[in-house]
Amino acid sequence: MLVHALESHIKTLQGENETLKQQLAAADARAAQEAEKAGKAIEAFADLARRLDALAEANQQRRPWWRRLAG
User: pTM, whole model, 2 decimals?
Assistant: First the structure.
Protein backbone atom coordinates (compact mmCIF):
# COMPACT_ATOMS: atom_id res chain seq x y z
CA MET A 1 0.00 0.00 0.00
CA LEU A 2 2.74 2.48 0.95
CA VAL A 3 4.78 1.45 -2.09
CA HIS A 4 1.77 2.00 -4.35
CA ALA A 5 1.21 5.47 -2.85
CA LEU A 6 4.86 6.38 -3.34
CA GLU A 7 4.88 5.11 -6.93
CA SER A 8 1.76 7.13 -7.64
CA HIS A 9 3.37 10.23 -6.14
CA ILE A 10 6.51 9.65 -8.23
CA LYS A 11 4.38 9.48 -11.39
CA THR A 12 2.68 12.72 -10.39
CA LEU A 13 6.03 14.41 -9.80
CA GLN A 14 7.38 13.10 -13.11
CA GLY A 15 4.36 14.55 -14.88
CA GLU A 16 4.86 17.91 -13.19
CA ASN A 17 8.55 17.76 -14.08
CA GLU A 18 7.71 17.22 -17.76
CA THR A 19 5.25 20.12 -17.68
CA LEU A 20 7.90 22.37 -16.16
CA LYS A 21 10.44 21.28 -18.79
CA GLN A 22 7.99 22.21 -21.55
CA GLN A 23 7.26 25.56 -19.93
CA LEU A 24 10.98 26.23 -19.57
CA ALA A 25 11.61 25.36 -23.22
CA ALA A 26 8.81 27.73 -24.28
CA ALA A 27 10.20 30.49 -22.05
CA ASP A 28 13.69 29.94 -23.48
CA ALA A 29 12.29 30.24 -27.01
CA ARG A 30 10.49 33.47 -26.12
CA ALA A 31 13.63 34.85 -24.48
CA ALA A 32 15.66 34.04 -27.59
CA GLN A 33 13.12 35.84 -29.79
CA GLU A 34 13.14 38.88 -27.51
CA ALA A 35 16.95 38.90 -27.45
CA GLU A 36 16.98 38.84 -31.24
CA LYS A 37 14.52 41.74 -31.36
CA ALA A 38 16.59 43.66 -28.81
CA GLY A 39 19.73 43.06 -30.83
CA LYS A 40 18.06 44.39 -33.96
CA ALA A 41 16.79 47.44 -32.08
CA ILE A 42 20.24 48.13 -30.64
CA GLU A 43 21.79 47.88 -34.09
CA ALA A 44 19.14 50.24 -35.50
CA PHE A 45 19.83 52.79 -32.76
CA ALA A 46 23.58 52.44 -33.29
CA ASP A 47 23.09 53.05 -37.02
CA LEU A 48 20.96 56.10 -36.24
CA ALA A 49 23.64 57.40 -33.88
CA ARG A 50 26.30 56.97 -36.60
CA ARG A 51 24.14 58.82 -39.11
CA LEU A 52 23.45 61.63 -36.66
CA ASP A 53 27.16 61.91 -35.86
CA ALA A 54 27.95 62.14 -39.57
CA LEU A 55 25.25 64.77 -40.00
CA ALA A 56 26.59 66.78 -37.06
CA GLU A 57 30.12 66.55 -38.44
CA ALA A 58 28.97 67.73 -41.86
CA ASN A 59 27.01 70.55 -40.28
CA GLN A 60 30.05 71.71 -38.30
CA GLN A 61 32.09 71.96 -41.48
CA ARG A 62 29.54 74.23 -43.15
CA ARG A 63 29.82 77.97 -42.79
CA PRO A 64 27.02 79.67 -40.86
CA TRP A 65 24.14 80.94 -43.00
CA TRP A 66 24.96 84.57 -42.30
CA ARG A 67 28.56 84.12 -43.53
CA ARG A 68 27.36 82.47 -46.70
CA LEU A 69 24.88 85.31 -47.19
CA ALA A 70 27.52 87.99 -46.53
CA GLY A 71 29.93 86.23 -48.86
Answer: 0.62
Q: Residue 26 class from Cβ within 10 Å (0-12 exposed, 13-18 middle, 19+ buried)? A: exposed
- Tell me if residue 2 falls in helix, strand or coil: helix
DSSP state of 64: P
DSSP state of 40: H
Cα–Cα dist 56/67, whole Å: 19
Give residue 45's pLDDT: 98
